[in-house]
Write a structure and sequence with these properties.
The chain is an all-alpha fold and 91 residues long. It contains three helices and no strands. It is rod-shaped, with a radius of gyration of 27 Å.
């Protein structure tokens, strides 16, 4: 595939907006421009989905950590109860 270079002049604000949009979609600015040129959607829906997916991934990691702690606490409580029951039986 033959490639051609394209130089685009824009304001710093436009460049920042384009860069932020590319980051939100987790693609390079060049890839974002290629997608736009091909008519592929790169609107707020995709950005929103990418952001939601990132938040979901973070929440899943946090939930797993919380579940591990809760399981450890439950196991510790069970051990205490068994020890308490055992000491009552011996008395």
């Amino acid at each position: 595939m033959k490639s051609e270079r394209l130089v685009v002049l824009m304001t710093p604000e436009d460049k920042r907006a384009l860069t932020n949009r590319a980051k939100a979609l987790d693609v390079s600015v060049a890839e974002l421009l290629r997608r736009v040129a091909r008519g592929e959607s790169s609107g707020p829906d995709e950005a929103t989905l990418a952001k939601l997916a990132k938040e979901l991934h973070k929440s899943v990691k946090e939930s797993r950590a919380a579940l591990r702690l809760a399981l450890a606490d439950s196991e510790a409580t069970l051990l205490q109860l068994r020890g308490h029951r055992k000491s009552k039986q011996e008395a």
